[in-house]
Amino acid sequence: MTTELRHGYCALCISRCGCVATLVDGVLTRVDPDPAHPTGQALCVKAKAAPEAVYAPDRIPYPLRRTRPKGDPDPGWERISWDEALETIAAKVRAATAQHGPTAVAFGVATPSGTAVADSFAWIHRLAHACRSPNLIFATENCNWHKDFAPAYTFGAGIGMPDYEHAGCVLLWGFNPATSWLAQATAVQEARKRGARLIVVDPRRAGLAVSADLWLRPLPGSDGALALGLAHALIEAGRYDRDFLMRWSDAAFLVRDDDSTLLTHADLHEGGDAGHPLAWDETTGAPAPCPRRPPNAAAEARLALRGRFTVQTVRGAVTCRPVFERLAERCRAWPADRVEAVTGIPAAQVEAAAKMIADNLPLSFFTWTGTCQHSNATQTGRAIAALYGLTGCLDAPGGNVWFSKPPLADITGFEWVTPEERALTLGRDARPEGPPQKGWITTRDLFRAIVEKQPYPVSCLISFGSNFLLSKPNTRLAEAAMQQLDFFALAELVETPSARYADLLLPVCSAWEREGLQAGFQVSAAAEAHVQLRPALAPPQGESRSDTWIVFELAKRLGLADRFYGGDAEAGLTQMLAPTGLTPEALRAAPGGLDLALETRYRKYEQNGFGTPSGRLELHSERMRGVGLDPLPDYVAPSVPHDSRFPLTLTTAKWPQYCHSQQRNQPSLRRRMPEPLVELHPETAMARGIREGEWIEVKTQMGAMRARARFSRHLAPQVVCAQYGWWQYPDGAGDANRLVDGECFDPVAGSNSLRNVPCQVLAGPEP
Ligand SMILES: Nc1nc2c(c(=O)[nH]1)N[C@H]1C(S)=C(S)[C@@H](COP(=O)(O)OP(=O)(O)OC[C@H]3O[C@@H](n4cnc5c(=O)[nH]c(N)nc54)[C@H](O)[C@@H]3O)O[C@H]1N2
Ligand SMILES: Nc1nc2c(c(=O)[nH]1)N[C@H]1C(S)=C(S)[C@@H](COP(=O)(O)OP(=O)(O)OC[C@H]3O[C@@H](n4cnc5c(=O)[nH]c(N)nc54)[C@H](O)[C@@H]3O)O[C@H]1N2
Ligand code: SF4
Ligand SMILES: [Mo]
């Protein structure tokens, strides 16, 4: 018997926890934490179940072709060779492109935050772009858009990472890292041991909320009101960073009262520069320029943040107010008692939270899906970003910092899709400032293109994971659309409900069976400097192959070898790593990873400005106004239809045992969470004759699902929290997305209202 230890990391979720695998005679037997690794302090149950994932009996063993019509519960799978599978896909892609152009072929990818497809994410994008497809489905609108892209309207970039090592106060908002990002949970706990305060905003008392200094319990979707209320409290108390706002934000920029546009040089002089904003100089009593790079604190200190001023423009007198004045006025509408009325959070707690923040700067915050899966997600995100802007902590020590990252080459080939082709991305007309600008589409738009051929037909879908029948709303529409799709090839580990609509099923190996590159582990400056080429920790099962291998093989058969390093994935990896100075060989020689010498610089905006149009942190966004939206953050009540039959609010959350619709096939995990649960308040249950542990029914306008009742006294009585992603029951038990219609979404991002669905619960039969 030979026992071998191999260093790696768990790639199953965004946390990418460092680990050491044990192989006995080449068989993966266990996975343990690697305390020497920057994210190796702990592993969750999903990583510990690695051997069960690898050797699961329901893994797809070899490429399969369907022989029965779509919609038949039994696809009649027939074994085929890899060669035949790849040739078939290439022929279908070529035919669809020849018939309708590259827009007829869509690509798909599972979430890189909740699967290991991150290993191949960039290559999958490169393949789509090399095929000149502007359409790629990926969960971004309900997942990471609101933390990685939408904050650009305010910050010019994503929210960065909390600098936990130096934070005085940590604010976790609709984010439960104890379940979803172990390395962040560990970092928060270390910050707390150092004395940092913790505020958690979550309708559930879950994870770190249990031990937080303050747990604020909003009604689902009401977070924007809380953000404005907290901002109001800080402004009222004068506890905002005036110097930061004056010098590095647009707070002093004047906005015209008549049309809410910024006052610029063009308003004052014929032929003036419309890109040149103005502020009010209190010493001269006249507008003064606001350059991208503020000259010095003294010059800026003369500018007004408050007040209303009359300015003579080339077309007559107009009144103007600084952006800050307008924001303050918005916030003034949110005194703590009104926040209480809308969010359900006691006014005293709102005031206590504002004080805790102001007393314990620097503030670090993180927000994730709790605030994004709503019809008002963009404005909620803008409100939280504006609140954060007031603290002046962005990119400062102990704040949210854009840590230096290992400089990988961008190999996604985004520019191969021409601007004309890009303009055709599904949903781009309706949501030009949302994910379609990056080529990421929603299933709602894809299904319309499949079924109604509007705005043009999509006939071919090539997807690398994703179980969108379970992870996106409106399961019934999905089923109907997938039946009508001409050709669908899916690379998967197991036969999911989405896979049952595939024409070809390709067996992909799990992350444990393939190499994977992680350049930077996100959670701290030191972790970001860590680069690791994870070795395969077990041999690939059956005929399974990595997504990257599939991409390169398809590229060759599509005549795209020249865009794929002659079809040599190793050459591609070398190219990707080149800017870091590292080579694949050097990384293979150090399987635990290598640390780059990256310098952490704070307040990089002092050199470069922010990545916004004005170069400053923008509380007022002209880009938003440009697409007909409110340029200032506001609370927009969720656009959820009221129906007296459904008096309760359904929300969802993740659980430690599973990622989305995965892992139910792993016995050690299934033992811990054998059946779908729905959490509800005991009084809500009692009023309906429901006992703890019983199977109950959750109903919405769209239909019903079942789950076992779990009581929680900490939930608001009108809130019910269900699971999603179960497909092990014939009647859709545990699939909350079957209850969501998909027509209620954010106008900018397209994020679905998955966490605020009117519902009713009743005692129900077992499935
Ligand atoms: N175990 C596990 N880990 C995962 C994943 C997984 O599926 N399972 N998925 C990965 C992925 S893809 C992602 S995007 C991340 C997501 O990571 P998180 O965003 O942390 O995941 P959730 O638990 O879905 O949501 C966080 C919290 O939002 C709360 N919430 C629900 N509605 C609201 C609301 O209206 N307002 C507020 N403020 N909070 C609300 C929920 O109660 C929950 O505790 O996790 C990643 N990690
Ligand atoms: N109601 C509700 N719905 C939600 C959410 C919610 O909180 N509530 N969360 C949303 C979020 S945050 C996200 S990100 C989406 C996730 O949506 P999806 O990306 O569709 O996630 P999954 O349903 O887990 O499906 C992923 C599939 O990819 C396969 N897979 C795993 N690893 C690999 C790999 O390396 N390669 C390949 N080819 N396949 C692989 C898995 O077997 C699985 O079937 O769900 C969203 N849906
Ligand atoms: S939190 Fe769990 S699933 Fe995610 S990377 Fe760490 S060990 Fe893996
Ligand atoms: Mo996600």
Quote the CATH topology of the domain at 64-145 and 420-508 and 544-567: Rossmann fold
Averaged pLDDT: 96
Percent range for β-strand residues: 15-25%
Q: Report the total helices.
A: 29
User: What is the radius of gyration?
Assistant: 26 Å
Listed once per kind, the bound small molecules are:
ligand MGD, iron/sulfur cluster, molybdenum atom
What is the straight-line distance between the termini?
Answer: 46 Å
**What is the approximate shape?**
globular
Structure keywords:
eight-stranded mixed β-sheet, 31 strands, globular, binds molybdenum atom, binds iron/sulfur cluster, Barwin-like endoglucanases, alpha/beta, 767 residues, 29 helices
Describe the structure.
It is a single chain. This protein is of the alpha/beta class. Among the domains are: 64-145 and 420-508 and 544-567, 3-Layer(aba) Sandwich (Rossmann fold), CATH 3.40.50.740; 648-763, Barwin-like endoglucanases (Beta Barrel), CATH 2.40.40.20. The protein is built from 29 helices and 31 strands. Strands 5-4-22-21-20-6-7-19 form an eight-stranded mixed beta sheet. Strands 26-30-27-29-28-31 form a six-stranded mixed β-barrel. It has a four-stranded parallel beta sheet with strand order 11-10-9-17, with helices on both faces. Helix 9 packs antiparallel against helix 14 and helix 9 packs across helix 15 (347-359). The two termini are 46 Å apart. The model has no long low-confidence stretch (mean pLDDT 96). Bound molecules: ligand MGD (2 copies), iron/sulfur cluster and molybdenum atom. One ligand MGD binds at residues 110-111, 113-117, 139, 142-143, 369, 373, 464-468, 470-471, 491-494, 496, 508, 511, 547, 652, 659-662, 724-725, 736-737, 754. The site of molybdenum atom (MO) has 5 residues, from loops.
